[in-house]
Amino acid sequence: MRRSRIAARVGSLLLTVGLVLTGTAAAQAAQPAATGGYVALGDSYSSGVGAGSYISSSGDCDRSTKAYPYLWNAAHAPSSFAFTACSGARTDDVLANQLGPLNSGTSLVSITIGGNDAGFSDVMTTCVLQSDSTCLSRIATAKAYVDSTLPGKLDNLYSVIRGKAPSAHVVVIGYPRFYLLGQTCLGLSEAKRSAINGAADYIDAAIAKVAANHGFTFGDVRTTFSGHEICSGNSWLHSVNWLDIGESYHPTAAGHSSGYLPVLNSAA
Fold this sequence. Notes:
- The chain is built from 10 helices and 5 strands; from the N terminus they run αβααβαβαααβαβαα.
- By secondary structure, the chain is α/β, with parallel strands linked by helices.
- The protein has a 5-stranded parallel sheet with strand order 2-1-3-4-5, sandwiched between helices.
- The longest helix has 29 residues, at 2-30.
């Protein structure tokens, strides 16, 4: 009889504890995880050139409400959001002009950078306007820069970001391949298109390596853009736009929402 009473008391106690723990877990589940601040750094691939809906106060930086950082902020509501990415930015520009919002409360940083350092705009202009051999020569020059100089630039920038935001999860996002190959496509020759894709792979590999050295996550958008390159028939990238040359070879709004945003969602 006494054992029955003890068992009953123990059972009652366990039930009470179980209810308390279950209630606590339910309460925790009902509340979204606390999110610190989000800072979006980088060049035109982060600011949203090509996506439209530019924020007037961003001026020549061309920050878009359809760019992936803006979309991520709208979906996740971090405690703060600083969107400092700017069209045309190089690593030195990020260091000089974009890092102010970083602090110990920053929990997420995203960045695309390195393409302008390597002369992306000049590469594309050369390849559009000049011969195959001149295009390939200019790409070779860009690759030499990626080998000799870009890693040091990225290493310095990533170190400063970590110093200013010691607790942040940093997501370094790469660049897409630009062309679907192996089919008839108006514009650039197959040789040029293949070389341009190879250059995108080359800089992505270099960026990913330095990011890994710093413990940062590399977000590879080549997977999400697969099948949506220029000449695919459903491209998420602008081809040459002579009426707005700055939009050329940049992601469309769909490129940000379906190409870049899923990568940040997976990595963040």
